[in-house]
Specification:
Number of strands of chain B: 9
Strand order of the largest sheet of chain A: 2-1-3-4-5
Distance between the termini of chain A: 39 Å
Largest sheet of chain B: 7 strands, parallel
CATH architecture of chain B: Alpha-Beta Barrel
Structural class of chain B: alpha/beta
Shape of chain B: globular
Distance between the termini of chain B: 16 Å
Radius of gyration of chain A: 18 Å
Number of strands of chain A: 5
Helix content of chain B: 40-55%
CATH topology of the largest domain in chain A: Rossmann fold
CATH superfamily of the largest domain in chain A: Cobalamin-binding domain
Largest sheet of chain A: 5 strands, parallel
CATH architecture of the largest domain in chain A: 3-Layer(aba) Sandwich
Number of domains of chain A: 2
Shape of chain A: globular
CATH topology of chain B: TIM Barrel
CATH class of chain B: Alpha Beta
Strand content of chain A: 5-15%
Oligomer: heterodimer
Chain lengths: ~220, ~350
């Protein structure tokens, strides 16, 4: 495929404005043209979602726009996934287990973070909401992620982040695992207090944090 | 002046003896009274007892029914999870309206017959009985965006703004009529003021807010006022881009979360609007000291200028040190409403 015909700009635009069908169509064309699946992340998906992040920070985009962009990105990723070796995809950026902690059923923040991380090239294991410490321990033991991302909206449930971290330490799974936390009630000082490795005030900060932590995860 | 007179005086354009004090106390009130939160949210007697104790302990000017954001949704049949020590929550993964078509077959529950709504009506009767004319009695309904999210699921609703805008109008119409019926029943039971909580509205941005949400919030506010109540709007989250539009709703009280600057709200809403708030509930009210709380609410007051009510930006967190809430009460007591 000649340089002039590369579809990256069109694909980036389709993702940014949330045109999932158009993004899928461009993906098919690019694959038929011989582009490698691994090229889609650095050339289209990651820069498109970084642009979505910029627009949200600048109050040009709000949650509905972010969600439809993430849905379009996921459409592309779903098409590429069978073509990418699972381990190769995970190795590209890292594997992340994410959840909303026990007692908390709020999932929109966690979902946006998961979709943004996926679009940034991380392999995601989403455990859902109201996740008990023992479920987390089991998931970390099974999936061996580099990162664990926990969300809590409420002051009443954020204490369960500490319970989960303590349970991971008791199960000897803490070393080598980087833990990031976020959610409306969570603060930087709370993250430090409970022994987390980082705090992200929003989904886009979470992506930057995950990139940084994954570089130093053992 | 008693608490009820103080609030009504300010809302009527007068100058009360001091600043009114109207914080949300939900889990804090339950803990203060030694009541299990599950009982507070589901048993009107436990709730009323806790409210009377907390308003007496902290010299609060109103009693409130806020406890359960799933009240209307659970009566519609939504799957709600109840916890012993925190408010009930919608099961987001299994929303009642998992498909948009289901709305057509739905009918709104009758407030006097449905379990959760009926409990709230009996609570208002109990609060009115105990408060008499001393404290203002605040009822509560969910706003159109929050209630729609409760029935449809927040994630689905956000995508519906793009995928099915006509459905959004139908759903908002349904929930607004339900809120009006519930609000009128609360007014009939003795509520002086109806709070409208529309948390999800802060997520959608100014364009969708103006187009989809604002007309229904406005219908709800106007309908509640026509039924004889004052109104208080509280939208959790960052409402900064929405402030001018919120100012045009005609609410008696705009209660701002801590992410929305009061000076900007005053500029955009004008000098007549009564503003309430808006300390950061976690970083300042819960984690601060009495001195920092006092200084922070003084700054809120400075930014809001006149026509101001003292309160936190959202619910008083349950672990808030007693002296911090007392500092907030002391500020209200020591300052006039001018």
């Amino acid at each position: 495929m000649s340089e002039r015909m590369l579809p990256w700009e069109d694909l980036r635009q389709a993702i940014i404005v949330g045109q999932a069908a158009r993004a899928r169509e461009l993906t098919e064309l690019a694959l038929a043209g011989g582009l490698a699946p691994a090229e889609f992340f650095p050339n289209a998906i990651v820069p498109a979602m970084d642009e979505v992040g910029r627009r949200m920070r600048d109050c040009e985009f709000f949650v509905p726009q972010v969600l439809i962009a993430a849905r379009a990105a996921r459409t592309v990723i779903d098409r590429l996934r069978p073509l990418l070796l699972q381990d190769a995809a995970a190795a590209a950026a890292g594997r992340v287990v994410c959840c909303t902690v026990q007692g908390d059923l709020h999932d929109i923040g966690k979902n946006i973070v998961a979709m943004m991380l996926e679009s940034a090239g991380f392999a995601i294991v989403d455990l859902g909401t109201d996740v008990a410490p023992e479920q987390l321990v089991e998931a970390v033991r099974r999936h061996r992620p580099q990162l664990l991302a926990m969300s809590a909206l409420l002051t009443t449930t954020m204490v369960n982040m500490k319970t989960a971290i303590d349970a991971l330490a008791a199960a000897r799974l803490r070393s080598g695992l980087k833990i990031m936390v976020g959610g409306a009630a969570v603060t930087e000082s709370w993250a430090r207090q409970i022994g987390a490795d980082g705090y992200g005030p929003d989904a886009f900060a979470a992506v930057a944090l995950a990139r940084r932590l994954s570089l130093i995860a053992i | 002046m008693n608490g009820r007179e103080r609030i009504l005086c300010l809302l009527d354009g007068g100058k009360p003896d001091r600043l009114p004090f109207m914080p949300f106390t939900m889990m804090f009130a339950a803990d203060y009274a030694g009541v299990l939160y599950l009982d507070y949210a589901t048993d009107f007697r436990a709730h009323a007892e806790a409210q009377f104790r907390v308003v007496k302990g902290y010299d609060i000017d109103h009693v409130s029914v806020t406890s359960d954001p799933c009240c209307e949704a659970s009566d519609c049949g939504a799957k709600v999870k109840y916890f012993p020590h925190q408010p009930p929550a919608i099961d987001e993964a299994h929303p009642l309206l998992s498909s948009r078509e289901q709305l057509r077959g739905m009918s709104a529950p009758l407030p006097t017959e449905a379990a959760s709504m009926r409990n709230r009506l009996r609570l208002i009767e109990q609060l009115k009985l105990g408060a008499g004319a001393e404290k203002l009695v605040e009822g509560w309904v969910e706003g159109p965006c929050a209630e729609a999210a409760g029935l449809r699921g927040l994630n689905n609703l956000m995508l519906d703004f793009f995928d099915a805008p006509e459905f959004i109008f139908e759903l908002f119409d349904f929930v607004t009529e339900m809120a009006l019926a519930f609000g009128r029943a609360q007014i009939a039971a003795g509520a002086d003021l109806i709070g409208v909580g529309d948390a999800a509205a802060s997520l959608v941005g100014p364009e969708f807010y103006e187009h989809f949400v604002w007309p229904f919030e406005q219908r709800l506010i106007a309908g509640l006022q026509a039924a004889g109540a004052r109104t208080r709007l509280h939208i959790c989250g960052n409402t900064r881009p929405l402030l001018a539009a919120i100012g045009r709703l005609g609410c008696d009280i705009v209660d701002l979360d801590s992410l929305a600057p009061l000076d900007q709200a005053r500029r955009e809403m004008g000098p007549r609007q009564v503003l309430l708030g808006n300390l950061d509930p976690v970083r300042v009210l819960c984690n601060g000291s009495p001195e920092s709380v006092y200084a922070a609410i003084a700054e809120c007051h400075r930014q809001a200028g006149g026509r101001f009510i003292v309160g936190a930006g959202c619910e008083v967190p349950r672990d808030t040190p007693s002296n911090n809430l007392l500092a907030l009460a002391r500020y209200a007591r020591e300052h006039g409403a001018a």
